[in-house]
């Protein structure tokens, strides 16, 4: 209570909350305890209710404040005041307190959200508009009322803020957020938003320097595209429109002076995934032997590769024999009916598309590939068709074509945004790489799978370096030739052989306890540093943040909600805490309570990042969704150490192996070029007598 002397109280959790508030009011001689409520004083100032009172921990600082019903009533009247100053202050306070669900329920019960809608529809004051929209967004985000009841006038007004060029940035930001929620909430609102907001205007928002505007615009774009992909799978117009403007994404986001933020990286990944998934129908469709168009494409591949005499003048048998011979030279397994090679899905018709694209886009390279291999011995020729089908499948797997966008991934390829037809162009480069690698390996037909493994490794390693253009990818992937792959493999093999010698294994076992203790300390230090976690809301967005960290004495876990721009908040600002001694268990994946509650809604990647700690005799749990697999491993290992358990993450095993390897190499430096025996030298038998031992005592006498 402002101006009052603080009270140190012991909160009796068995006593009704109203009785506790009455005692506090009596201590300060305040009348009307029904008009007051308890609220956290630090961090996110949440009201204390009967449903969340058990979350209060020892040492929490609470304050006595206006009850949510009274606060809602005062603000409801304040925003209707004729005094512009009072109205503005009330809306500003509303934007702040609307994050609390208890207040939101009270305010909405008075139809306060409809009053905000009316203000938005009628007002032209930018100052109050920002607070009004922010308060409205916070209220709606609790899911108390449906988005579908909004009027078309309101939707048009929100869309006008996005479409208008000279609008205040804060208004545009929250307007984009509101429109995204509408799109994700219902198909009807999606259609209205799609009609009111043009793709070109959203793309224009990607060209601004304000990263928040860029991110919100990208979020709305992805919501529109993903919803459109679900309801209109066959229509690619919107995606293609955005791809034509990809230069803005490349220049203003990927190549901008600032680093790409995690949320933006996720949206870039989603755009890449949604776009590439337009190829899935072709990948899942087998060749139809009765399709005239597909047969013509197959024969077009043959005719583009070989200069033949006029087929019309040949007899049917002669023409059939010639076609079979040429299809065999092209590398089809079933030369009499080459369509059978394309029945397998994946890659299905996508393999035919990539071959035809290569033959028509780069006819000289195509002819050179086929004719060069036609002149080799049968066992040494690289089969173009068979190689193309397998290469297309490899590219589909690397680019994850056919996989739905993950809610957590952010591993986009910058090269995607510099190229119209990424898969086809990558194929054209990689099929020539395959021929080059085939020659370098002096491969035969029996080595086909080995060659494809090498090519997959070449592509994967090159893409992992994040090339930004096709030319850069081409240079890098061709530089990583077969000899370089052999060197990498040889280095790995020698390293493995060296570390598997029995004396080295024994030394490893002696070093392991010391290094495990080092990893334990690192994990605890990482927990003391803390991590920012995201909450996945009902809108499948991860825009709510909270922070958790371990106290320096390793006795308390402190946590609490934080703002987006907060970086490493002080431990004092985290208002909630759990004694480590009260932690009873650690759960991961589908065993977590928050994963069971959302059964059927979470994909495997979210399950792999989820973990929970149970405390107070396993009645309560604190639920986490780690920002990455690395953070998941760090936290589960650290919590296991606190619970006195063994660390079991793959990250721990990897780090232990690295530390052991480094320590072994340092200790073996003096033994360079000295062979290490597989076993210790045998101990010789004892001598038959010990007469060689000289007795000095007799000499002294």
Shape: flat
Average residue pLDDT: 86
**Helical proportion?**
40-55%
Extract low-pLDDT stretches.
none
Strand order of the largest sheet: 3-4-5-6
User: Which structural class fits the helix and strand makeup?
Assistant: alpha+beta
- What's the N-to-C terminus distance? 100 Å
Main sheet properties: 4 strands, antiparallel
How much of the sequence lies in strands comes to: 5-15%
What is the tally of helical segments?
30
Strand runs, count: 9
Radius of gyration, whole Å:
34 Å
Protein name: Engulfment and cell motility 3
Keywords: Apoptosis, Phagocytosis, SH3-binding
Organism: Scophthalmus maximus (Turbot)
InterPro entries: ARM-like (IPR011989), ARM-type_fold (IPR016024), ELMO_ARM (IPR024574), ELMO_dom (IPR006816), ELMO_domain-containing (IPR050868), PH-like_dom_sf (IPR011993), PH_domain (IPR001849)
Structure characterization notes:
The chain is of the alpha+beta class. Among the domains are: 17-64, no CATH class; 67-145, Leucine-rich Repeat Variant (Alpha Horseshoe), CATH 1.25.10; 286-405 and 414-492, no CATH class; 518-655, Roll (PH-domain like). It is 55% helix and 7% strand. It contains 30 helices and nine strands. The chain has helices spanning 17-27, 68-78, 84-97, 101-109, 112-122, 126-140, 152-163, 169-185, 187-196, 199-205, 211-231, 237-244, 246-254, 262-276, 280-283, 292-305, 316-330, 349-361, 363-374, 384-398, 422-441, 448-464, 470-479, 482-499, 502-529, 593-597, 604-609, 629-642, 650-667, 696-700; strands spanning 36-40, 62-66, 531-535, 544-550, 556-562, 576-579, 583-588, 610-615, 620-625. The protein has a four-stranded antiparallel β-sheet. A three-stranded antiparallel β-sheet has the order 7-8-9. A two-stranded antiparallel sheet has the order 1-2. Helix 2 (68-78) runs antiparallel to helix 3 (84-97), helix 5 (112-122) runs antiparallel to helix 6 and helix 7 (152-163) crosses helix 8. The radius of gyration is 34 Å and the shape is flat. The chain starts with 16 loop residues before the first helix and ends with a helix. The model has no long low-confidence stretch (mean pLDDT 86).
């Amino acid at each position: 209570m402002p101006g009052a002397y603080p009270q140190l109280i012991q909160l009796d959790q068995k006593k009704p909350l109203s009785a506790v508030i009455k005692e506090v009011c009596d201590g300060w001689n305040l009348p009307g305890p029904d008009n007051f409520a308890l609220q956290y004083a630090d961090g996110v100032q949440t009201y204390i209710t009967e449903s969340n009172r058990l979350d209060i921990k020892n040492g929490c600082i609470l304050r006595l404040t206006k009850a949510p019903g009274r606060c809602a009533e005062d603000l409801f009247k304040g925003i209707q005041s004729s005094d512009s100053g009072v109205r503005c202050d009330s809306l500003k306070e509303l934007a702040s307190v609307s994050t609390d669900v208890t207040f939101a329920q009270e305010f909405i019960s008075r139809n306060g959200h409809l009053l905000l809608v009316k203000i938005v529809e009628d007002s032209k004051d930018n100052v109050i508009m920002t607070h009004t929209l922010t308060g409205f967004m916070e209220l709606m985000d609790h899911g108390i009322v449906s988005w579908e009841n909004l009027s078309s006038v309101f939707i048009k007004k929100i869309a006008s803020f996005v479409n208008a060029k000279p609008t205040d940035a804060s208004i545009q930001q929250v307007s984009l957020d509101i429109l995204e929620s509408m799109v994700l909430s219902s198909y009807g609102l999606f259609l209205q938003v799609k009609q009111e907001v043009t793709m070109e205007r959203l793309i224009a928002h990607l060209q601004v320097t304000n990263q928040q505007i860029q991110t919100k615009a990208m979020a709305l774009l992805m919501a529109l595209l993903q919803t459109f992909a679900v309801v209109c799978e066959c229509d690619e117009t919107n995606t293609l429109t955005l791809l034509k403007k990809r230069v803005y994404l490349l220049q203003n986001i990927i190549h901008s002076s600032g680093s790409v933020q995690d949320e933006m990286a996720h949206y870039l990944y989603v755009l890449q995934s949604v776009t590439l998934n337009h190829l899935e129908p072709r990948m899942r469709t087998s060749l139809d032997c009765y399709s005239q168009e597909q047969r013509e494409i197959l024969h077009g591949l043959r005719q583009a590769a070989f200069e033949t005499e006029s087929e019309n003048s040949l007899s049917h048998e002669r023409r059939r024999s010639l076609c079979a011979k040429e299809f065999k030279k092209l590398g089809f397994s079933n030369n009499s009916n080459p369509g059978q090679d394309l029945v397998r899905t994946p890659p299905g018709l996508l393999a035919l598309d990539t071959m035809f694209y290569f033959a028509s886009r780069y006819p000289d390279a195509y002819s050179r590939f086929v004719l060069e291999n036609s002149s080799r011995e049968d066992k040494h020729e690289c089969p173009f068709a068979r190689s193309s089908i397998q290469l297309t499948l490899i590219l589909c797997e690397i680019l994850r074509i056919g996989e739905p966008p993950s809610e957590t991934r952010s591993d986009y390829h910058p090269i995607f945004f510099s190229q119209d037809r990424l898969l086809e162009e990558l194929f054209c480069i990689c099929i020539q790489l395959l021929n080059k690698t085939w020659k370098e390996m002096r491969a035969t037909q029996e080595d086909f799978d080995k060659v494809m493994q090498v090519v997959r490794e070449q592509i994967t390693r090159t893409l992992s370096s994040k090339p930004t253009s096709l030319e850069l990818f081409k240079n890098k992937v061709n530089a990583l030739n077969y000899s370089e792959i052999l060197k990498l493999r040889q280095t790995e093999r020698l390293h493995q052989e060296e570390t598997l010698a029995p004396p080295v294994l024994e030394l490893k076992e002696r070093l392991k306890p010391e290094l495990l203790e080092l990893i334990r300390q690192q994990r605890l230090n990482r927990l003391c540093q803390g991590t920012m976690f995201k909450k996945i809301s009902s809108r499948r967005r991860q825009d709510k943040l909270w922070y958790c960290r371990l106290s320096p004495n390793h006795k308390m876990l402190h946590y609490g909600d934080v703002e987006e721009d907060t970086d490493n908040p002080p431990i004092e600002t985290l208002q909630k805490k759990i004694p480590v001694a009260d932690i009873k268990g650690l759960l991961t994946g589908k065993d977590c309570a928050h994963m069971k509650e959302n059964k059927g809604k979470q994909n495997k990647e979210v399950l792999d990042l989820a973990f929970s700690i149970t405390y107070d005799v396993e009645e309560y749990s604190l639920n986490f969704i780690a920002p990455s697999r690395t953070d998941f491993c760090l936290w589960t290992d650290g919590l296991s150490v606190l619970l006195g358990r063994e660390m079991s993450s793959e990250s721990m095993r990897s780090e232990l192996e690295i530390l052991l390897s480094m320590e072994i190499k340092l200790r073996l430096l003096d033994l360079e070029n000295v062979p290490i025996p597989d076993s210790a030298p045998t101990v010789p038998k004892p001598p038959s007598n010990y007469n060689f031992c000289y007795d000095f005592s007799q000499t002294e006498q």
